[in-house]
Amino acid sequence: QVQLVESGGGSVQAGGSLRLSCAASGYTYSSYCMGWFRQAPGKEREGVASIEYDGSTSYADSVKGRFTISKDNAENTLYLEMNSLKPEDTAVYYCAADRVNWGLWPHYKYWGQGTQVTVSS
């Protein structure tokens, strides 16, 4: 059974940094594509960053140059390093996984429960 568990969310001031983690279990980690998504109140879920089997990455324009997605296959963990945070980055952040490479589209089969990130001005 695939399980994804996010951690690392919290409250920071604008300009600060956070690192989110997503611990994965129940599948062959290296054979899945993974992504980070976020959803703010009243808004649709949006793709933030994704990483493919070969390590290729994609980012939403709104986070390019500020966020970095990475994965540790040995630890079965996905990361999202977030720097220069802005109030508009406030949202619940979710990690997702699938054998299909959905990129930044929210069609992944497996999802975590989410972790709250709040950025104050």
Question: Please, could you describe this protein's structure?
Answer:
It is built from no helices and eleven strands. It has 121 residues and is mostly beta strands. The strands form two sheets. Strands 2, 4, 5, 6, 9, 10 and 11 form a seven-stranded mixed sheet that branches. The termini are far apart.
How are the SSEs ordered, and which strands pair?
Blueprint: E1 3-7, E2 10-13, E3 18-25, E4 33-39, E5 46-51, E6 57-59, E7 67-72, E8 77-82, E9 91-98, E10 110-111, E11 115-120
Parallel strand pairs: 2-11
Antiparallel strand pairs: 1-3, 3-8, 4-5, 4-9, 5-6, 7-8, 9-10, 9-11
Give a quick rundown of the structure.
This protein is mainly beta and 121 residues long.
Instruction: Kindly provide the radius of gyration, computed on alpha-carbon positions and rounded to a whole number of angstroms.
Output: 13 Å
Average pLDDT taken over every residue:
95
Approximate strand percentage: over 45%
Which spans have pLDDT < 50 for at least 5 consecutive residues? none
Q: Roughly how many Å apart are the termini?
A: 40 Å
What are the main properties of this structure?
four-stranded antiparallel sheet; 121 residues; mainly beta
